[in-house]
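Per-record layout

source: Steroidobacter gossypii
name: OmpA family protein
length: 389
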Amino acid sequence: MRNTIKTTNARLPVRIAVSAVVALAQPCAAEEARPSSGFYVAPILNAARLDDDRAVDDDAAFTFAAGFEVHPDWNFELNLFRGRFDSSSGDDLTMDAAGLDALRVFRRDTRLAPYLLLGLGAQRKDRHLSDSSTDAYADAGLGLLGALHRSNQDGRALFLRMDARARYDDMDDSGRVDYLFGVGLQYAFGSAARPAPVHAPIAPAPAPAPAPTDEDHDGVPDGTDRCPRTPAGETVDQQGCEIERDSDNDRVPDSTPDVCPNTSPGARVDARGCDLNSEIELPLVAFDHDSDRLQPQAFATLDQAAATLRLNPDLRIEVAGHTDGLGSEAYNLRLSQRRAETVRRYLIEKGVTNELRVRGYGESEPIADNGTEAGRDRNRRVVLRIIPQ
């Protein structure tokens, strides 16, 4: 009689599973895309068919699983198993197991989602009369998830879960294979709701912007043309201003004007576009009597000299000061030095960056007769000598 009752208990989960499959197989509305089910728990009632070598009756057992949907195709879960099995010899068996399973779920978004499972764990076998033991085990099986309720907003769901697995136990001994058939409920707690995407309305295409005006027809729109009245046919830069011509490529624009428009290509020229000699003369540079103070007519000449040096910033220059023959030689030497330093300071104030050396020669290098006023006037001078590279 007891064996008949145990067999009936063991077949109960199978009967429940068959009825559930029939109910879930009915047609249902098309499934919608769903959020993740997240964490879930599953109490499962098992029908256990144990290996004949255990010498116990088949009976019902219980599994509790807790897991997480880590991917649309995969679940990982921890399961706890317990079963009590009677033996005709009185050496009853209690089995407790804990393991980790990986479930490969197919067609998860449909009403019936089949899955395969693999698992590893440890199982404790307590005998009433003989020795107890703990061994590793491995599970392999298949199952089915049937959706009873599912929320497409937050992923919460209730499933009817059915599976069958073979458990290979006693790996360190000869090995035994038990078969577990389970049916239970699986409840998923869901995840945060995924808001439906909001599609912004499509704005109408903007009206085409009016074509920019260009009154002087130089190719630069009036809005950015800094020279709006350029003569027709002239070449202009990006700001609409005429690009100055330099016919002989001496870096002095023709409009400066270039006093020497046919300078050889590559030649060094002064600010007027003419070839540079070994000295840059400063004919109108004059000082107050017995002083290093520049007279007003000197400024234009020095400004042109500064422009020449800025055009040739690599030239090394000696600023040489000279006097006439009146007065003592020592005094004239000091005066010529001071006048040369005055010219050097002026050039630097005008942006000259060349190397400028200062030297006073006094009355030692006259270029005219100191016996006449006209000669002495020519001898009182400052020149810029180009120092050879």
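summary: The domain at 279-387 is CATH 3.30.1330.60 (60s Ribosomal Protein L30; Chain: A;). The helical segments are 2-24, 298-311, 329-349, 373-379.
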